[in-house]
Every structure is written in C-alpha cells, then in structure tokens.
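Crash report, auto-generated. Payload:
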Amino acid sequence: MQGKSVKRLLGYIVMLLFTLAVLLAFWKLGSGRYYLFATLLIIGGMLPFILGFERKKPQAGEIVLVSVMSAVAVVARMAFSFVPHFKPMAGIIMITGMAFGPTAGFISGMLSLFVSNFTAGQGPWTPWQMFAFGMAGFAAGILYEKNIMNENRRLVTALLGFLIVVLIVGPLLDTSTFFLMDGMLGDMTPWAIYLSGLSVNAVNGAATAVTLLFLCKPFMERINRIKLKYDI
Amino acid sequence: MRQKGFATYNPIVCFVYFAGTIVISMLTVHPAAAFISLVMAAVCYINVHGRTAFKLIGAMLPIFALLALANPVFNTRGKTVLFTYMGGRAFTLEALYYGIVLAAMFISVIIWFFVYHEIMTADKLLYIFGGLAPALGLALSMILRLVPHYGNHMKSISAARKAISCDGENKTAETANIMLAMLSWSLEEGIITSDSMKCRGYGCGKRSRFSVYSFKAKDVLLILWIAALIVCIIMCKAKKGLEAVFLPNINISGEENRYFVMGLMAMILYFATPIVINVTEAVKWSFLKSGI
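Recovered output after restart:
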C-alpha cells in the first residue's frame, strides 16, 4: 500500500513538472504559436486513462476484448467506406464503452483512431482525434452506467450518440483545426471555425445516430451472449 | 518492406528526430526557416518515397496557394496596400507575405508527416511505446494483427452468404449483416485467445519483449548529433535570431544577426540529416556494386 501511494505521488509530480516545462518552453520560445502547446495538453489529458489502464494490470480477457472491439471499429470504417459520409466508427466505439465500461471505451476509441490513421494518414491532428473518440467511448460508458443510454432505448441512445458527436467529438476536432490554422486566416474568432464545422459534425453525428439505431441492439445482443456464455 | 539508410537507425532515434523536426517547423515563424523546412521536407519525401512522391507534393501546391492567399483576404492589417477590392477592402503586401510563410510552415509539417509515415512503421512505434505501456502496447499489436484478419473474415462470410444466395439487394444492409456475423466470430475467437493466454501464464510475472532493434554506435552518434543541433537551434531562438514580425511592418532578423546565421545553418544541417545518410549509403552501395 505504502509503495503504491509513493508511486502515485511520483506520478503526479512528474505530470506537474511536465506541464510546467511545457508552459515555460512555450512562454520563452513559442512565438505565439499555440498548436503544440494545446496538443501536448491533449496528450496530457490522455495520460490518466492510459496510466489507469496500465495500473489496473488488466487481465488477458480485458485486453483481448478491447483489441477485438477496436479492430471491429477500424474494419467497419473500411467496410462502409462505399457509403458516402457514413463513418460508423464513433458509433461502434460508443457501443464498446456501453458494453465494457467507460475506461475500455476510452482506450478502444483512442487505439482504433490511432490504427485507422495508419491508412487514413497520421498528422498533427492524430492526438486530437484519439482523445476526441476516446471521450466518445468514455461518455457512452458513463451514460450506460447511469442507465440513460441503453440498447433497449434505441431512439434515446441514437439521439445521445448524435449529441456526443456534435457537442464533444466535433468541437474537439474543430479546436484542433483552430489551433492549426491559427493566424492563417487573420484574426478569426474560434466561433467562426466552430460554426463552419457544425455541418460536418452534424453529418458525422447523423451517421453515428444511424449506426446506434440499427447496430446497437444486435451488437449488444451478441456481446451479451458471449458474456453469458463465457461468464465475463 | 525493405529498410535502408535512415530507416535502419534505432526507432527511438528516428522518433526523436521527427518530433524535433515537427516542433522546430511548427514553432519557427521565419521566412527562411519555413522555406528551408519546406524544401528539405519535399526532398526528403522524394528521397524515401521515390517518383510517386511528386504527385503528392504537386497536390499540396493548390492548398499552399489557397492558404497563402487566404490570409490577406481575412487580414487587412499591413502598411503597403497592393490593391483594394469590394469597395475599399485592402489587400496588403505584409499580410500576403505572412500568409505565404504560414502556408509554407503548414505544408512543410504535413510533408514531414508523410516522411514520418514512411519511416516510422507500426512495429517501430510498438518497440518505443510497448515498454512504457505494456498492456496498451499489447492491445495495439493485437489490433494491428486483427484488422487484416477481420478483413479476411468479412470476405469469407460474404462468399459464404453469396454461395447460399442470401445476399440481399441492398449492399448497406448486407454489409451490416456481414459485420454482425464477423462480430460474433471475432468475439468467440477473442475469448479463445484470452483463454490460451491465461493458460500460458499471462499476467503472472514480468513480461519480456522481443524486438529486432538495438542501440548501436551509429545510433548513439546520431542522437548526439541531433541533440547538439537542437540545443543550438533553441539557443538561437532564445537569442531572438529567428524572429520575424510581419504585421503591420515587416521586420525579419537577417544575416546581420549572427544568431540568425548560426540558427539557420543548424536547421539546414538538422533537416538534411536523413537525406545525407540515405544518399551516402546509396553512393557507398553503388561503389560496392561496381567493385564486383
């Protein structure tokens, strides 16, 4: 117990020093460019989930199921690529969060985005996408635990999926665009970026809602059957 | 995939190099620095990717032009007015210059990411991060293996459904059906995998890792070289050698500032490192071949 708390304290100190070092470096050398600063903070935001997952010493089953669901999400994105504007990834990540809990949802969202970017293209936006989709899985997991999102309440679940994409995932990605475009389009307020991103986010949100509406129940049924069969 | 030149160095060294490249390119708002980063990125990409690289770099040109021209449209500050339009809105030289520099920075970062993509393959990233986060690294390596595996699953499910002619008219619904069959299959398979892992003792004791990479003398040399150049560039930045102000007046540090000259030289050397390594290796190889 003693060793554990010391380790945790050390972890906090390291994170604090990391943040301070980043702040100092940007204050001195940033030339008013905030993209990297913001990106480092986003990576810092992922760290608690990653450390939590590692510290828990996950069993073989947990790791395998997270990997399976992430791979399914990546394959689904490729399989449905013939339907224009339809990206089922966020929906499947949310189902993962609902079926296996918020942390598993976050990890699977993060990893599936990372892996799918090996084909879609890694870029300065990768950490933001990882965090945003991780958050989608996390939010769905929390809402499922509170019994708000549920495979039996299809319409509510689909609506909430839409809202998560439009209110959490989309704005996070727009923030990344804002920092990346910082200065390039003059003294533009972030609101202009958020407004222009709204249509894209609405399309992605609708795709997620459709995914949840039609796939959530059958997916959950199959996952629950496996859970029952193998007593997970 | 064959690996040669810069790609044969230890992945940690390559990763540090690319992190440094991208940070330097993103943070230095200076026309000369942005230009050098852009040219070096393009040359490096052509070097590692071959002829088809020209196509992608060509595709970047319209984006470059769009971004460069967008800045003066949105930004009217700046002293020298080139022309006015739409009832007196000014299009200024300073804003255009600033736009070109920002666009060059943006495009160079994108091209550096192409190069990164070419050299930092998934197994190298696993080597770097697998040690820091073992559970996450294991999950990542599993996903990388499962994605093509599930692609094959989907193909065989689709073939089986065609064979018993229950593939419907609607391609979307059919894909969803295949997805569901694939999900059940992959979950069952996953359970078998995890049982097998448990039986072989996963989770009891420290897990060892295998990797083909090791730290050789050349890796140590390269990382010292990279570190020295980064320290030099940071110092020149701190001494205001790589500063540039565009709006409303253009004020750029030039060759009269010795920290500018030093910083720029360090940048050229830094960005040219992989190209030099690759070209030297190619030349050496052709000499060896001609000796046979």
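Post-recovery validation: Residues 1-31 of chain A form one domain.
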